[in-house]
């Protein structure tokens, strides 16, 4: 879906996700999912030229292909051991998804319901604890709803601010929850006790809409700004270079 016209909600979400990597320098971007992948590539092509991208296998790539296309130019070898070394050393910024996320950033991607007899089996814990305890972590939520933004997660996979604090310095030393981007707003944890708050509202979204879609009390500061819209150059890159097939609009419909 290339062309002209005002930015769609999906394109605003792409830019909001890209902004999570602003100022990171030479770190490995680890986007999980379509819109985070477009976002990391947009950041690399614009304000974060030092960002490291992979082909999803074992190579660092120098070019920035469209989603679904293979990179043609490699700039380094990144086997699993070296990838883990970057992760454990804090040189990686991942953007994960979440089946459930609570006010402190505890994330669940493992199961819904009681752990011993879950109603739904999901991905499993995977690398979420190591991600959240060793390097910056952000989240992408394509459907902001009370089913995802919950009072308590059914199982902790990614470690939230409250649990990291309770565990002490060994957990908090490299623990860094950066942002949560949803289809309604951008949120962060810049509060005294590390709870989520609204950082910006996407255009045409009201504070009441975000509160209704959240399963816990959420701070929406008075006069919360609007999430910035893509520049013409960014829209060109999203529409013509990175996602000419318009797959982003299927993830966040117009």
Automatic annotation (TrEMBL):
InterPro entries: CoA_trans_fam_I (IPR004165), NagB/RpiA_transferase-like (IPR037171). Transmembrane segments: none annotated. Pfam families: CoA_trans. SUPFAM superfamilies: NagB/RpiA/CoA transferase-like. Belongs to the 3-oxoacid CoA-transferase subunit B family. PANTHER family: ACETATE COA-TRANSFERASE YDIF, CHOLESTEROL RING-CLEAVING HYDROLASE IPDB SUBUNIT. This is CoA-transferase. It comes from Streptomyces luteosporeus.
């Amino acid at each position: 879906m290339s062309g002209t016209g005002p930015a769609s909600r999906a394109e605003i979400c792409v830019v909001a996700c890209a902004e999570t990597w602003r100022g990171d320098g030479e770190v490995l971007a680890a986007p999980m999912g379509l819109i985070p992948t477009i976002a990391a590539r947009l950041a690399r092509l614009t304000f974060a030229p030092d960002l490291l991208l992979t082909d999803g296998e074992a190579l660092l790539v120098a070019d920035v292909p469209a989603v679904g296309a293979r990179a043609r130019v490699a700039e380094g070898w990144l086997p699993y051991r070296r990838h883990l070394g970057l992760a454990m050393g804090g040189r990686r910024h991942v953007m994960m998804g979440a089946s459930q996320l609570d006010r402190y950033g505890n994330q669940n991607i493992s199961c819904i319901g009681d752990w011993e007899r879950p109603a739904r089996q999901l991905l499993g814990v995977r690398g979420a604890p190591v991600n959240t305890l060793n390097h910056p972590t952000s989240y992408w939520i394509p459907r902001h709803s009370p089913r995802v933004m919950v009072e308590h997660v059914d199982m902790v996979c990614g470690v939230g601010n409250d649990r990291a604090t309770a565990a002490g310095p060994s957990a908090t030393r490299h623990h860094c929850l950066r942002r949560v981007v949803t289809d309604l707003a951008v949120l962060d944890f810049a509060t005294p006790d590390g709870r989520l708050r609204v950082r910006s509202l996407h255009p045409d979204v009201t504070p009441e809409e975000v509160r209704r879609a959240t399963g816990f009390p959420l701070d929406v500061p008075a006069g919360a700004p609007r999430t910035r819209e893509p520049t013409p150059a960014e829209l060109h890159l999203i529409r013509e270079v990175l996602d000419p097939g318009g797959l982003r609009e299927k993830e966040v419909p117009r």
